[in-house]
Structure formats: C-alpha cells, structure tokens
Write a structure and sequence with these properties.
166 residues, 6 strands, alpha/beta, Rossmann fold
C-alpha cells in the first residue's frame, strides 16, 4: 500500500512542477516580472528607515512566494507603487482612571497594484495593521520589533490581495 502511494506521488510531482501558474501558497501567477517602487513616506511621524524596511519586506515576501523576477523598468508584468500614510502611537488601554496600560502603534500603507496581463486585477487600497505594547516601555525600546512584525503582516496582506485575491 505504501509502495503504491510513493509511486503515485512520484508520478504526480512532475505534473505539479510543470504547471507554471500553480503555487502551494494558493497564488495565481501569470507573469514573469515584478517592479516594486520604493514606498514614499507621507506619514506625519517619519521614521527614516521605515520606507526601505517596508519596501524590502513586501519585495521579499512576493519574490520568495512566486517565481517572479525583479525588474526595475516600466515593462514589468506587475507594478507596485505606494506610500506610508500613517505611523501613529495612541493609547489603547487605560488602567485605573488616568493611567495608560497599553499603547498602540498603527501603521498604514496605500498600495497601487497594476497587473499588466489582467487589468481587472488592478487595485488601489490602504492596508492597516497595529500592535499593542506595554505603556511602561518606550517606543524606542520596542519600535524595531513592532515595525518588523507589522511589516510582515502588511507584506502578507498585500501579497494575498495581489496574488491570492483573498
């Protein structure tokens, strides 16, 4: 029985590999090239490295989950532009009457995705994520970890909208 399973698996693997648009992530990829422009930072509070960090996270997420090749020209099959529209820290939890117990970092990016092979898949959308941190900690102490976490979440959201269409 186990032997039949391995024979069947051995026969099916080449078929799945030959299918250029199938991906184990659920993504449908028709094109070959991707151009991701550097995100412009338009947030009121500017973190100097944020634009590069988020752009790299989005680029790495898409390139690692697809067979696309990076292309820095206007000829790319997929084109992503956008901007960071919000980077804000607010109080999210109050303890007793006037003491903050939790703060929240909110990060929003506006993305314009163009699919030159299927213009119906184009979109212009704002993606927002937040993370709470203990008010006893300063933003500077937790900022790098929060940006890393929020950047990964935003990259997943953008990938899913562009290629999985969730």
């Amino acid at each position: 029985m186990l032997r039949k399973f391995f024979i069947l698996l051995f026969c099916l693997i080449p078929l799945l590999q030959g299918c250029g648009i199938y991906s184990f992530t659920g993504a449908t990829i028709d094109g070959k090239t991707l151009n991701i422009h550097m995100l412009e930072n338009r947030a009121r509070n500017v973190v100097p490295s944020l634009s590069g960090t988020l752009t790299d996270k989005i680029r790495n997420r898409i390139l690692s989950q697809t067979g696309l090749s990076p292309n820095n020209t206007d000829n790319a099959d997929y084109d992503i532009t956008g901007s960071i529209t919000s980077y804000e820290v607010t109080v999210s939890g109050v303890q007793n009457v006037q003491t903050a117990s939790k703060n929240r970092l909110t990060l929003a990016v506006q993305i314009n995705f163009k699919n030159k092979l299927n213009p119906k898949a184009n979109f212009n959308q704002t993606f927002t994520r937040f993370s709470d941190f203990d008010a006893s900690q300063t933003l500077q102490n937790v900022e790098t970890a929060l940006i890393d976490d929020l950047g990964n979440q935003l990259a997943d959201d953008i990938f899913n909208k562009a290629f999985v269409n969730w």
